[in-house]
Specification:
The complex is a heterodimer of chains A (about 280) and B (about 260). Chain A is mainly alpha-helical. Chain A has twelve helices and no strands. Chain A has a single domain, classed as ABC transporter involved in vitamin B12 uptake, BtuC (Orthogonal Bundle). Chain A is globular, with a radius of gyration of 19 Å. Chain B has about 260 residues and is of the alpha/beta class. In chain B, about 25% of the residues lie in helices and about 25% in strands. Chain B has six helices and ten strands; from the N terminus they run E-E-E-H-E-E-E-H-H-H-E-H-E-E-E-H. In chain B, strand 4 and strand 5 form a beta hairpin. Chain B is globular and about 50 Å long. The chains are: A mainly alpha (about 280), B alpha/beta (about 260). Chains A and B meet through helix 7, helix 8, helix 11 and helix 12 of A and helix 2 and helix 4 of B. The complex binds adenosine-5'-diphosphate and magnesium ion (MG). The site of magnesium ion has 4 residues of chain B, from helix 1.
């Protein structure tokens, strides 16, 4: 168990555990809103923050958080406008962010190799100050995602009805994308910006195959996320694998295993549903 | 001169334009306290749009909407208005019936964002949700997935969600659509009980029959204008406006089947 005595591995395990809990928690709402690819777009935008930090010689994580949150607000503004141009706007934002990040990084003398740890995660890069920020931000994400779950659920389930209840629907919509942005950036170090979206979506899909109902699915997805994130970090340490890719493939394996369960539950539910 | 009591809802001269078309044209509707006002009219006559406009979900370009004597933009009593939309717009595929109904309990939490959920909330809400489901005869299905319910069951579930708000007013858009006769009676009883406790109801109806004795006032819309306003007995035969209705729906009601939503 030398793995637990190494300081960098302790930090990597804590960061991975938090990413494994927070990503599916936010992902549950994102998936239900049919915005499954939002996390992916936010990951692209966050690269602009990383590039900016490399260029100016500041810490990458805070810069990535700031830029990604700003991008998230823009995305939600575009979505609420509901224009036909919204799609194009999103594409420009996502790929513009990624391209700008890579460009700034190359200006700073970082080649593609230097960016790899941000794009795909790396066990050795979580610094002590990174970890403090990750813990604080993850705590905020989890408290809001769980403590305000009925409100967030109401807005995701039926926005019009939530509005008739007098809920500040706009506030919750913005809150959700900002939390998604924070989650994406805090998972950057362990899973990587290009793969974090998988951790927001795949455990959620797997949990919905196994558990009945939204809140059971929420807790189940967090459990699957936590287990695959920790197992992925441990496996990548011993087998010298890329942690992000290992975590994501483990999550996909869990999803595949959940299929037979879904088939059984579906049959059962259809019978129950036909009663009047 | 006796003072007129303030109506629950007063709509005057309402114009609503959607997609460049004038959908509602100078509509006047009043809902008196403790009364049931029925909105009738053919498909596309603007009934749903009127409900959405009075609830602030659709913007209006002219006229006024007053709830309990207050202009719509000043009104703060939204949580006491229980809205049952016409078509289940629930976008959650993995949601149980109890979870859908639970949303209604947010109505009686305080503060703009309704606060963090505590164990006390959970305990109180569970009883409210069970009572609301029981009122519409769906308590046994509480743990079923919402999307696996029939159209009529979904409609009753949305009524339960509104009842879970402990509302003062119900705003119902075709609450009987796809509901079989036995459960139409259940909805009648639930609404009769609600009215007996002083509740007011604005209801869009297709099939008036099973709720007729509860209706105090009828308004018939035609092409976005009020074609009739008065007692239900004097209303022009609403069935004339239903020529676009697929016959399957009427047949479903006759045989007690609950057709699925088609759109
Ligand atoms: N968002 C919208 N944009 C444009 N037209 C609309 C919109 N919603 C409804 N309409 C039109 O308004 C008319 C009235 O619709 P609606 O209020 O749903 O009627 P009803 O409920 O009486 O069947 C219909 O002709 C419908 O096509
Ligand atoms: Mg309608």
């Amino acid at each position: 168990m030398d793995i637990l005595t190494l300081a960098f591995m302790q930090r990597a395990l804590i960061a991975a555990a938090l990413a494994g809990l927070a990503s599916p928690a936010i992902g549950t709402y994102i998936v239900q809103r049919r915005l499954s690819l939002l996390g992916d777009g936010l990951g692209h935008v966050a690269m602009a923050g990383v590039g900016l930090a490399l260029l100016t010689g500041t810490a990458p994580l805070p810069a990535a958080v700031a830029v990604c949150v700003a991008g998230a607000v823009l995305i939600e503004l575009l979505r609420q406008k509901g224009r036909a141009t919204g799609d194009i706007g999103l594409a420009i934002l996502f790929y513009g962010g990624l391209a700008a990040g890579v460009l700034m990084a190359s200006l700073a003398g970082q080649g593609a190799g230097g960016l790899q740890s941000y794009l795909f995660g790396s066990l050795v890069t979580v610094s002590a100050s990174d970890l403090r920020l990750v813990v604080a931000l993850s705590a905020v994400v989890l408290v809001v995602a769980l403590g305000f779950s009925p409100q967030l659920f109401a807005v995701c389930a039926d926005e019009d009805y939530a509005r008739t209840l007098g809920l500040p629907v706009r506030v919750y919509n913005f809150g959700l994308v900002v939390l998604a942005a924070v989650t994406v950036t805090t998972a950057m170090r362990t899973v990587g910006l290009l793969l974090v979206s998988a951790l927001m979506v795949i455990p959620v899909a797997a949990a919905q195959n196994v558990f009945r109902g939204f809140f059971a699915g929420l807790w189940g997805a967090m459990g699957i996320g936590l287990a695959t994130a920790l197992a992925g970090v441990v496996a990548s340490y011993y087998a010298d694998l890329a942690p992000g890719a290992t975590i994501v493939l483990l999550a996909i394996a869990v999803f595949a295993a959940s299929w037979p369960v879904a088939a059984l539950t579906h049959r059962h539910v259809t019978h129950g549903g036909s009663r009047t | 001169m006796p003072l007129e009591p303030t109506p629950v809802l007063a709509v005057r001269g309402l114009d609503v334009r959607l997609g460049g078309n004038l959908i509602l044209d100078g509509v006047d509707v009043t809902l008196a306290a403790g009364a049931v006002t029925a909105l009738l009219g053919g498909n596309g006559s603007g009934k749903t749009t009127l409900l959405r406009a009075v609830l602030g979900l659709a913007p209006h370009q002219a006229g006024t909407v007053e709830w309990f004597g207050q202009p719509q933009d000043k009104f703060r009593g939204w949580p006491r208005l229980g809205y049952v939309p016409q078509k289940a717009a629930i976008s959650l595929h993995a949601t149980t019936l109890a979870e859908v109904v639970h949303t209604g309990t947010l109505a009686y939490r305080h503060g703009a964002v309704r606060g963090l959920t505590t164990l006390a909330h959970r305990r109180r809400d569970r009883a409210v949700v069970a009572a609301a489901l029981d009122a519409v005869g769906l308590l046994d299905q509480a743990k079923e997935l919402f999307i696996h319910l029939s159209g009529g069951q979904q409609q009753r579930a949305l009524l339960a969600r509104a009842l879970a708000q402990d509302p003062a007013v119900l705003v119902l858009d075709e609450p009987l659509a796809g509901v079989d006769l036995a459960h139409q009676a259940a909805i009648h009883d639930a609404l009769a009980g609600f009215k007996a406790q002083g509740g007011s109801v604005l209801v869009v109806l297709h099939e008036v029959v099973s709720l007729a004795e509860l209706v105090d006032h009828a308004v018939v819309l035609r092409g976005g204008r009020v074609a009739y306003s008065g007692p239900l007995a004097g209303a022009p035969d609403a069935s004339h406006g239903h020529e676009h209705e697929p016959p399957a729906k009427a047949a479903g009601v006759m045989t007690g089947m609950e057709p699925q939503w088609t759109s």
